[in-house]
Predict the 3D structure of the following.
Amino acid sequence: MTDQTTDVMMTETVERIATKRPTTEFYVYFGIIFLATLPLASLTWALAAIKSRSLTDKGPVARAWSQARIITPMIFSAP
């Protein structure tokens, strides 16, 4: 016989975590990280544009935004 109470509890926990909205603290950290990555993203974008002699698909703001989207959740998921 299987123990189904464990599966139910884990499912409820996963659903609760998945639907949790970001807090103000998350947005503050996101903004700080975005502003910190913007100069380096601009530099790498400029170097890539010079090297390829054309404008790349992602601009410096999009690059910094994606880096902030990667780094910020890592901070909040750290144990």
Notes: The chain has one domain: 22-77.
